[in-house]
Amino acid sequence: MKPLLSKTTKPFIIYVLIILVISIPVYYMVVDAIWKHELDEHNEIVAKKTERQLNNLGFSDQKNSEIVDLWHKIQPNTYISPLLSGDNLKDSIYITEKHNAFPSAEAIDRFRCYSTVIYLHQKPFRFLVETNIEESQETIFFISATTVLLFILMVGGLLFLNRRLSSSVWKPFRKTLDQLKNFNLNQQANIEFEDTDIKEFDELNLSLSKLIDQNISVYRTQKEFTENASHELQTPLAILKNKLDILLQNDDLTEKQYQIVEEMHKALTRSSSINRNLLLLAKIDNSQFDNSEVIQFNELLEQSIQILQEHFEQKKIALHSDISSNVEVKGNSSLLEVLVNNLILNAIRHTSVNGMITIRLTNSVFEVSNSGTEALNEDLLFKRFSKLSTDNRGSGLGLAIIKQICKLQNWNINYRFEDQLHIFSIDIENMEQKK
């Protein structure tokens, strides 16, 4: 991503560059037009001045002819000649190219020509004056070079000033950004933004303060509700479950009454499990867990496998494990234990008798695979209360909890079905660190 400064400066530089490119031919046309206009005025003045001065001399026609011959010798670019037959007596202005007689190296130059009729002692003559205009090209070159130099100085100065000013102008914004990065909702501490002399930044800080206050208030309310629900609901559920346990031990129950009580006990156990899982999801969503512990993942995984060994034996499931040593992750040990247990129990629940489960752990991947016959519906896989099988013992929240824990850890979880195996793979490398 590019900083804001480069996004505003780049279009400006491109715009100025386009104007520079356009300005060079415009400069040329404007200066060349002005130069030609000045030369035309100069040539017209030369013609009028020559006519007046020759008439003021008062020489005879023969003397005037001698003076004209002499004029041609000392003024090679000015010509006075008798009118030819059919001369329309009109003035004309044009440009011609020819060798310049004055430079030591012969070169073809442009000349601005002005042809008019003058009268010497009442006799008309054709007067032609030619003025070299090659100097205009040199003028254009220096103007263009100066323009390019000024452009470089302007753009260079703009970039320098922008960089110098951005460090001071954007300092309050960067400070606000740093405070937001370090903000932790679990601490429930508001951010005290400093006053700035920039109206937009003050408005931003004020809006952020209001938003943070609202979030803290909502967080406190949700946290209180979660804590109250955890206490108020679990207690009566535990009492009911206890009473049903006592009732199941009563020998006076008939077979029908026993079945009814047992069904109530199963439903209550499932309700209690759903309640615990919903409260756990609420706590995860509200970021109520400290996520800064350094955990030995391999040790925790081996402990969970040992605890769940009885479940493997009940269904005669063959367990294959490939666990690397010294696998450390940063997170919450309680949540990581929930993730491991839920993922393994989910594999056990959906593995048939005499099936197979493989557990693999490396420094980058935690993977659980179990034998199966057909792929699961990936659209419903991590949704709450979605049923992927006819087994009603689960709460329907196990995979949803796994997904939320992975999201909290910045881990990526994937599912695939290949070689008659359901494979759940978790990338335990932090996605932000990878970026």
TrEMBL record:
<keyword id="KW-1133">Transmembrane helix</keyword>
<keyword id="KW-0472">Membrane</keyword>
<dbReference type="InterPro" id="IPR050351">
    <property type="entry name" value="BphY/WalK/GraS-like"/>
</dbReference>
<feature type="domain" description="Histidine kinase">
    <location>
        <begin position="228"/>
        <end position="432"/>
    </location>
</feature>
<protein>
    <recommendedName>
        <fullName>histidine kinase</fullName>
        <ecNumber>2.7.13.3</ecNumber>
    </recommendedName>
</protein>
<dbReference type="InterPro" id="IPR003594">
    <property type="entry name" value="HATPase_dom"/>
</dbReference>
<feature type="transmembrane region" description="Helical">
    <location>
        <begin position="12"/>
        <end position="30"/>
    </location>
</feature>
<keyword id="KW-0808">Transferase</keyword>
<dbReference type="InterPro" id="IPR036097">
    <property type="entry name" value="HisK_dim/P_sf"/>
</dbReference>
<dbReference type="InterPro" id="IPR005467">
    <property type="entry name" value="His_kinase_dom"/>
</dbReference>
<keyword id="KW-0812">Transmembrane</keyword>
<dbReference type="Pfam" id="PF00512">
    <property type="entry name" value="HisKA"/>
</dbReference>
<dbReference type="InterPro" id="IPR003661">
    <property type="entry name" value="HisK_dim/P_dom"/>
</dbReference>
<keyword id="KW-0597">Phosphoprotein</keyword>
<feature type="transmembrane region" description="Helical">
    <location>
        <begin position="140"/>
        <end position="161"/>
    </location>
</feature>
<dbReference type="Pfam" id="PF02518">
    <property type="entry name" value="HATPase_c"/>
</dbReference>
<dbReference type="InterPro" id="IPR036890">
    <property type="entry name" value="HATPase_C_sf"/>
</dbReference>
<keyword id="KW-0902">Two-component regulatory system</keyword>
<dbReference type="GO" id="GO:0016301">
    <property type="term" value="F:kinase activity"/>
</dbReference>
<keyword id="KW-0418">Kinase</keyword>
